[in-house]
Design brief:
The protein is α+β, with helices and mostly antiparallel strands and 341 residues long. Helix content is 25%, strand content 28%. Bound molecules: uridine-diphosphate-2(N-acetylglucosaminyl) butyric acid.
Length: 341
């Protein structure tokens, strides 16, 4: 296991911003993870686990700790019934390759999450989701190194406190666990409607008669390429803001002024309002400031054209948050995690 020193984090995050980490180490196995944490504890160094870096924002000052690159591999069918197949996946697997393999095996449950950048181990952290599916729907358990008890533990889905783009891993137990592998329960049945609205629209517009897993994958990849910049070409972190969750009275108040406001009822009685719509309606689509830009094709995305540091990002973020608040009375929140001491 190599430990490197003074590594720039720019190349390790898709937003391509930020400073150096004092140490960086690659973990290929659970054993690597355990020994890294034990050594870090002796030296009193914090550890930040990084997957693909597609949902992480780094600060400019040196991170006085260890960035752990999780490269634990594996894709293994561990059990099956007539209807379902359980697959155990190493946390360091590239998420989209996992989706591709599952589709290749005829397994349904994650195909709408095609094209999401990042690793399998990062997926539960913010309960990734797209086009009507989220990881909480298929994850049954995961194994993680628990830095509090210095043991490897199994955590079941109902212990993860999954909600919209959230879990214990980025909320109340932030920094405690390093996810080693995840187990998904996928279905042998073919996908069935109803499909997510934009997916259905694509199916109709392209006159697709027979929908199967591969058709959904291609559709999602095409829809995404229209709305989300390819991180290899334009630095970004996907959706930069979470969608807004508001009470019913607030939605009704907004509807009096904006009758066309898109909204989705949540199971907890609140309503989700697309933040992309709020930013767009506030006139900020294509807005440029501090070397950053609100993406023309999707106002929820911030693109880094020539920003030189975290402060540039923070500056445009504060401008957008303030303008949206002044117009709608909603305080929008950043979605990507931050790597800082
Ligand atoms: N909209 C606008 N203007 C914009 C952008 C969006 O009016 O500039 C409107 C759209 O017309 C639509 C609504 O906002 O009515 C929602 O847009 P969309 O369906 O594209 O999805 P989203 O809510 O913006 C979420 C996820 C994405 C995920 C898509 C598809 C979050 C923060 N984002 O975006 O996830 O791919 O749904 O399911 O939940 C990510 O998390 O990084 C991400 C890309």
């Amino acid at each position: 296991m190599d430990v490197m020193t003074n590594i720039s984090l720019k190349q390790y995050t898709t937003m391509k911003l930020g400073g150096e980490t004092r140490y960086m180490a690659t973990a290929d196995s659970a054993g690597d993870v355990v020994s890294l944490y034990r050594n870090a504890r002796k030296e009193n160094l914090p550890i930040f686990v990084l997957g693909g870096g597609s949902n992480v924002i780094t600060h400019d000052e040196v991170f006085e700790g260890i960035v752990l690159l999780n490269k634990i591999k594996g894709f293994e069918v561990i059990s099956e019934t007539d209807e379902t197949t359980d697959v155990k996946i190493g946390a360091g697997e590239v998420w989209d390759e996992v989706v591709e393999k599952a589709i290749g095996l005829g397994l349904q449950g994650i195909e709408a999450m095609s094209g999401i950048p990042g690793t399998a181990g990062a997926a539960p952290v913010q309960n990734v989701g797209a086009y009507g599916q989220e990881i909480a729907d298929t994850l049954i358990s995961l194994e993680a190194y628990d830095s509090k008890t210095d043991t490897i533990v199994t955590i079941y889905a109902d212990e993860c406190d999954f909600s919209y783009r959230n879990s214990i891993f980025r909320d109340k137990e932030k920094g405690r666990y390093c996810i080693l592998n995840i187990t998904l329960r996928l279905n042998k049945a073919e996908p069935k409607p109803p499909y997510y609205a934009s997916l259905q629209r694509y199916i109709d517009e392209n006159d697709i008669r027979e929908v199967n897993l591969s058709v959904i994958r291609v559709a999602v990849l095409n829809i995404r390429s229209e709305k989300l910049p390819d991180p290899a070409e334009l630095p970004s972190a996907g959706s930069f803001f979470k969608n807004a969750l508001v009470e019913k009275w607030k939605l009704e108040e907004l509807q009096r002024e904006y009758s066309d406001i898109p909204n989705y009822a949540m199971s907890d009685g609140r309503y989700k309002i697309p933040t992309g719509w709020l930013i767009d309606k506030a006139g900020l689509r294509g807005y440029r400031s501090h070397g950053m830009r609100v993406y023309e094709k999707n106002a929820l995305v911030l693109v880094n054209d020539s920003a030189t540091g975290y402060d540039d990002l923070a500056a445009i973020r504060e401008e957008i948050v303030q303008i949206v608040f002044d117009k709608f009375g909603i305080k929008i929140e950043q979605e990507p995690l931050e790597l800082s001491r």
